[in-house]
Write a structure and sequence with these properties.
Helix content is 17%, strand content 30%. It is built from three helices and eight strands; from the N terminus they run E-H-E-H-E-E-E-H-E-E-E. A hairpin with a 2-residue loop joins strand 6 and strand 7.
Length: 149
């Protein structure tokens, strides 16, 4: 199968393989993604062989969503916040959105509030569904969203 030099044909890119974040405080980020958001952290034989040394050294942590998307955290202790005000966008990426069943949305909002996470805005209701925008420990915006009932 040869790919044209002009474009990658529709359908060739099958899914998001992984999303990687540089994080200043690995412990805080592991707690956020693993305990607060409830994502499964890869351990033992689940860790890709190429990352075992980095994971064991505390430089990388890997989480997986129920649909199989991997979120890689890379420890960068010298990482400076882009701005003390997390509402100021600092990259071309705007936010990472997680889908949740509509009947679980209010429970997720309560968890975010109970953990005293900084909420950017929301909950909001739109014709496309409901959403809540908040920040991870490094100031990256996360959204929990659901389709309309």
């Amino acid at each position: 199968m040869m790919i044209s030099q002009k474009n990658i044909p529709n359908g060739y890119l099958r899914k998001v393989h992984h999303i990687a974040f540089n994080v200043q405080n690995m412990a805080a980020s592991r707690h956020f993604y693993g305990h607060i958001l409830g994502l499964h952290e890869l351990t033992g034989d689940e860790i890709p062989e190429t990352l075992i040394e980095l994971v064991n050294a505390g430089k990388v942590a890997n989480f997986i969503t129920p649909d199989g998307t991997i979120i890689d955290l890379f420890a960068e202790p010298e990482l400076l916040p882009p701005d003390p005000d997390p509402s100021k966008s600092f990259t071309r990426a705007y936010h990472l959105a997680f889908d949740i069943a509509p009947e679980l949305f209010d429970q997720a909002v309560a968890v975010i509030r109970d953990n005293n996470l900084v909420i950017a805005y929301g909950p909001v209701s739109r014709p496309t569904g409901r959403g809540l925008y908040f920040y991870d420990p490094d100031g990256f915006m996360i959204e929990i969203r659901c389709d309309p009932h």
